[in-house]
Protein 1
Amino acid sequence: MTSTSSFLPSEIPWGEPAGAVAAALRTDPIQGLTGSEALRRLAVYGLNQLRARSPRSIWKVLLAQFTSLLVGLLLVGTGLAFLAREWEEGAAILVVVLANGAIGFVMEFRAARAMEALRALGVARTTVLRDGQVARIPAESLVPGDVVLVEGGDVVTADLRLLEASKLLASEAALTGESLPVAKHSAAIPVGRPLAERSNMLYKATALTRGTGRGVVVATGMRTELGQIAELVVEAEEGETPLERRLTGLGRRLVWSALGISLFVIVAGVAKGEDPFLVVETAIALAVAAVPEGLPIIATIALARGMQRMARHDAIVNRMAAMETLGAATMILTDKTGTLTENRLSVRLLVTSEGEARSSPWQGVGERARRLVEAAVLCNDAALTERDAVGDPIDVALLRLGVEAGLHRAALLERWPEVHEEAFDPETRLMGTAHVAGGEIRVAVKGAVEAVLPLCVAAATEAGVHRLEEVGRGAWRAQGDELARQGLRVLAIADRRGGPADQLYHDLTLLGLVGIADPPRADAADALLACQRAGIRVVMVTGDHPATARTIARQVGLLPEGSESEVVLGDEITGPEALSPRQRKRLLAATVVARASPLQKLRLLALHQGNGEVVAMTGDGVNDAPALARADVGIAMGERGTDVAREAADVVLRTDAFTAIVEAIRQGRVIVQNLRVFIVYLLSCNLSEVGVVTVALLLGAPLPLLPLQILFLNLVTDVFPALALGLGEGDPSTLVRPPRRARAPLLGPRQWRTISAYAALLTAAALIAQWLTLHGPRPETASTITFLTLALGQLWHVFNMRSVDSGILRNPVTRNRLVWAALALCVGLVLLALGIPAVARILALRQPGWQGWLTVLGFSLVAVLVGQAGIQLRGRRSRRVVASGEGRAMGDGAGMRPA
């Protein structure tokens, strides 16, 4: 494959002038590459990707199914059977091993592929020039010679030689370890500089913290500096999520408990005079049955399925651990723009000394308004084409205003070429540009009203430029406040003729105000109401004017209509040590926080976390990244969010809609609820198998189940219904319950009591059926009756996995088509085992006769009938508690309330 550097005059692009590098790469810095040339180079250089970790091979996944302690125990049982010349039994155990391995392989393979498909959803995109047009393309399509436009908040997606830069700062800690951002420029530098001092280069995976720039791609994929490092890195396995670690720990405890029970069975069975070989095989089978070895795999599949559902609702999960935390969220700190509003910004109003202009299209506006629009279009970082709009939505709205007024940015820049820019700074809330034409300097500035007014010494009026006194500033400030009360975002526009080009914020002339409308989302009010019902508090934290924030909060129902609730200003959020108890209480109670900077958002987040809240926080800017990383769940905006914010977040919203946050929280709750339900089901079934054998031995009864029957139960009647429960859609009432405690264990005391109670019911029903058969006309069918009673009892037991506040006939379990499919499959397998003579002989099953079937059907229903009665009683008790005002129903599946 051709080397990228073959285009270059040397292999050191930072040592060459920017124009020479562009020329060597045969690219036009203004037009970029043509589409056809980009495709040709893509074929030569390949995709702009680092060599990804190879997916776990099929053979490794398959081999892993046969390396566990439980499989080892089964193989010991196989060996014992062959030693005793029990050829059929040994072969049957071997079949069980292979079948168990096949099921595990299919489940794990599907889970792995599902996770890989989810990762593919988060495709990075880059702004480039192609055929003279600004376009957003997948970063993997970048090729050497592409001209890339960058700005603060971007993550660099290839190695770039800068052609131009304005106030550009890059955080290169990922490559150099240097924690402070590095200032960038476009001039050539000495050849021998180390990477950390190559200030005219941008490197893949570094982050831009402010400013704007344009660069030409000099290396992609594995040819980048990061790619060369990646070649040296030894592949590492992905770490487990906290949830997976807890499940693994639970599995280990169950293994040791099962081994202890098996040892007891061996000692008790031999002491009772049972066949030692049979007792050992039974003990091994019990050990295998007692441990739900499919637990981590089913959990992974459930997590992947939940993440896929979230993706369908436009929420992409970056970190799987966030799924569990989402279900415990008690508070959302949300931005306003694009989340509670539509982010379809349009200019509704211009205010100049000539008065207000509310016309659209904006043709024929007055001279003052025209000058204002010119300045707004010049002081702009967005790009507007017939096909696309790239840049900040406010800038895009201003460009559209210019188009309607006949003032196109490209034409204006031809008349007034830009020579200097101060990129927008969220701390100062200002942006400025300087332009030169015929030796004359023109400065254009835009920003928040309270930020621009102090910089203005004059105002443009019909009679010319007049000095701006304090009274005049007060009038403009009052006008801005009035527009904000109408729910408009308000910008002040100013300019200056003459003066130094590098000092933008001095001696400005105020041109007027721009009112920009961003209507509330139609679904925001319902989403906020859903949060309220779910026990989740929502706080709006915005950089907008307090009056704008209050108006929007009322429109979406966050503040009741007519409420005079105070809006807290960001300036009030100081460090925690400086807060008085009264200030702390005021901040914790605030529903709307306005004019908040990123640092103040971070402080507010820490304040609520210190108060015991589990906080989900939204953000979009590069300065939001620290807060997104620190939040319990960081949620980045996918449409308007910066790359840095998306990298720092746990969840990325593709549509920026608040409804997607609510759905993400619902899915987080559903996943934890499903995990808890299928674990309760699995463990109660497994413990019933252990209980049947153990209690029978303690009572001196014959062995109620034979080894292969136990293994059949474990393989057939546990796994498929449990998997179906783990993939359920969830209870519709999920979002009308309070969030679970963040530190609550997956299985608390209440769940363990439920598991024990259900296991006792299944055990008692099977043993009573055995006792009646032993004392009936056909005692030789006792083992078969016990087996069938326990098998069918476990299958019907799946209906006990509903919550206390759901109906008997209509609930998440009965609506789950996978549950019905699992039941049909399992019942069919049980009947086949009984009906195929060869299989029945290996499992030591006999035809039970009609009396036996009556016993089986009657006692297999005991657990589900008693369980349903118990759930109904608990449901009535919960409803009485709610009616009395002392609490609310908190059903969480399996007839339980959450721990």
Note: The domain at 328-341+521-656 is CATH 3.40.50.1000 (Rossmann fold).
Protein 2
Amino acid sequence: MSLLQSNDSLTSADLPLSGILVVSIEQAVAAPLATCRLADAGARVIKIERPEGDFARGYDHAAAGEASYFVWTNRGKESLVLDYKQAPDAELLHRLLAKADVFVQNLAPGALTRAGFGSEDLRQRYPRLITCDISGYGEGHAASDLKAYDLLVQCESGLVSVSGSPGEPGRIGVSVCDIGAGMNAHSAILNALLLRHRTGLGSAVSVSLFDGAADWMTVPYVHERYGAGAPGPAGLAHPSIAPYGGFVSHDGVRVVISIQNDREWARLCNQVLSAPEAANDERMATNALRVANRALVDGLVAERMGQQSWAALEKALNTAQIAYGQVREVADLIKHPALRTWPMDVQGQTLEMVAPPARSPWDSGQFRPVPRLGEHSQALREEFGV
């Protein structure tokens, strides 16, 4: 039976990155997320930590006493406590890198270069090694040495200026810049592995939190630089489409509707709002006109939806095939019918964690545990030591 038919008998050797060794000097979220994705696909990931451990271990204690961030991004790894500034440990690190396929790091700019483990030096010494440097702002300019934590990069990139509510810019509620950098690093590493398969040589790849955030800001950037100006924070409204935003039913259920074209607008008017005259109103006939007259459009929609119960609205929206989504709380997410979870053992407890976003034929249906600090140090020192 092939992998595409069943994963009941899968072993680690069946996974896409089986045989790939990843060494990572990592902390916080971005680099651990990238290497976690590699571990999920079968790579062996050796996580090098200071004696006090990755500081993300202490972010919170929500996951059976462990930090939610750490449990999310460090499953299936081996933990090695090592001080590369000491000669014996530096030699051990070189022994690891001599056999590694990928080296990932997200320390302060220049920290590893000063210690003799910069990407350029490593790739000269180990030509097949793929190096991935994750930084806050990239290298070679005035902002390179700025400390870069997620919210700071959200601010510097302008993300907060288009988020939040009018007059009150706001942080995006999850660590999107860290997450984006981890996703970009994962993608770049996979590309480098494919290139090495053809050429036999490793590559130096690098990503920054700022670059990822700036990429996501392309549409506001274009509007600001070449158009009429970037949109400001709009709460639940969409800056370029109307009606596309949040409205409240008579019994207090908040729902976001999305009208993508004029046919949908006509169906909304006729079948949901009981306002057929609005479908052909010259002030609202096209999306450009609806955006220009947003107050009129949103006022009509809010009034008519606010007169109906959620049960009636839901039925009408489904009948008219209007896209909508309820504004739910995190407690609602836990019960959402689309949510997939996998079990993970954490400190002897089984936690239901959110499943990986990509579904694959090699899915195991459960997560491997996260390592205790230094859990594998002795075994790794014996395996790779002098």
Note: The two ends are 43 Å apart (CA to CA).
